[in-house]
Amino acid sequence: MKTIINLIATFFIMAPCFSQLSSIPPKTQLPDDKNWKLVWSDEFNGKVLDTTKWGFRQHIMQTRHETWTDDAYEIDGEGNLLLKAYEKNGEYYTSQLQTGSNFMDRPGDPYGKSKLTWPIANLETSKFLHKYGYYEIRCKLPTQEGWWVAFWLQSPTIGASLDPLASGVEIDIMENFKRDGTIRQNIHWNGYGKNHEHEGSGDIKLGLNDNAFHTYGVDWSPTGYVFYIDGKETWRVAGPVSHQEQFILVSAECNGYRNGAASSILKEAKLPDYFVVDYIRVYDEINY
C-alpha cells in the first residue's frame, strides 16, 4: 500500500513538469548529416525587442521608404515576434528587422537616377555577422493578401564588385508572397542593377497556409546551399557561394509601394495581420 501511495504522490509531483514539457516548442530540425552547435539565437522572450540584436531597415537603394517603419511589430510575451501589416490614414506600414546594414541603409541618390555607392566606412556597426552554418526560422505565415514576408541573409558589401565570393550573395531562405502557402527560395548576386543575377527554387507548394508553425532553414557551406522546410530538403544550389560574413533579415513589405502606391487589394484586407515568428537560430557545424 505504501508503494502505491508513493507512486501516486510522485505522479502528482511530476504532473506539472509533464505539462511544461508538452508546451515546449519542437527542437530545431537540423540536417542530420552533420554535427551542430548553437552560436546565436533570438527566442523573442519577454515583451521588448532585444535591440542589442536587431535594428530596422527603413531605406531601399539609399532612398527612405516611408512605409517601412520601426513600430510595425509586437513581442507578445509568449515567446513570439509578431511582424504586422497595419493601416493608418490610408497608408499601409510594415517593419524590416536586421542584424547588420549595407548601402541600402544610407541616404543617397534616388533609386535609378545615378550610380549607387557603397559608403562602407559610414555603415552602422553590425550587431551580428556570420559566415556559413545552418540558419533557421520557426514561423506562422500571414493570412491576408496584399503583403509579403521573408527570412534572408545579405552582405554588407553585396554588389560592390562582380565577384560574389568576395562581395556576398543574397540568400533568401524563405519568401512568401501569396496566402496559398507558396514558398520561394533564391540566391541573388552581383548587385541589383544591370549585372544582377539570380537562381531560385521556383514555387514550393506544401500546404503551408494551415495557420501552423513551420521551420525554414539553409545550410550554407563552402560548397553550396541546401534549403529545408520542416527538416526536409527542398532545394540545393552549388553557388556562387559567399565567402563573406553576412547579416540576418526578417522582413515584411506591402505590395505596390515600389511602384508608387499601395496595392488596391490591401483595401480588402482585414488588418492588422501578422507574421508570427517563434525563434531564429544559427548553428555552426562541428568538425571532428
Short description:
This protein is mainly beta and 288 residues long. It has helices spanning 2-23, 164-167; strands at 36-42, 55-56, 59-60, 63-64, 73-75, 81-88, 91-93, 96-98, 133-140, 147-154, 170-176, 184-189, 197-200, 214-221, 224-229, 232-237, 247-254, 273-285.
How do the strands and helices of this protein lay out in sequence?
Elements (H helix, E strand, L loop, with lengths): L1 H22 L12 E7 L12 E2 L2 E2 L2 E2 L8 E3 L5 E8 L2 E3 L2 E3 L34 E8 L6 E8 L9 H4 L2 E7 L7 E6 L7 E4 L13 E8 L2 E6 L2 E6 L9 E8 L18 E13 L3
Antiparallel strand pairs: 1-18, 2-8, 3-4, 5-6, 6-7, 6-18, 8-17, 9-14, 9-18, 10-11, 10-17, 11-12, 12-13, 14-15, 15-16
Could you list some keywords that capture this structure?
Jelly Rolls; ConA-like_dom_sf; hydrolase activity, hydrolyzing O-glycosyl compounds; 18 strands; globular; nine-stranded antiparallel β-sheet; single chain; signal; seven-stranded antiparallel β-sheet; disordered N terminus; Beta-glucanase, GH16 family; mainly beta; Beta-glucanase-like; 288 residues
How does this model look, in words?
The chain has helices at residues 2-23, 164-167; strands spanning 36-42, 55-56, 59-60, 63-64, 73-75, 81-88, 91-93, 96-98, 133-140, 147-154, 170-176, 184-189, 197-200, 214-221, 224-229, 232-237, 247-254, 273-285. It is mainly beta and 288 residues long. The chain has a single domain (36-285), classed as Sandwich (Jelly Rolls). Strands 1, 5, 6, 7, 9, 14, 15, 16 and 18 form a nine-stranded antiparallel β-sheet that branches. Strand 5 (73-75) and strand 6 form a beta hairpin. The radius of gyration is 21 Å and the shape is globular. The chain starts with a helix and ends with a strand.
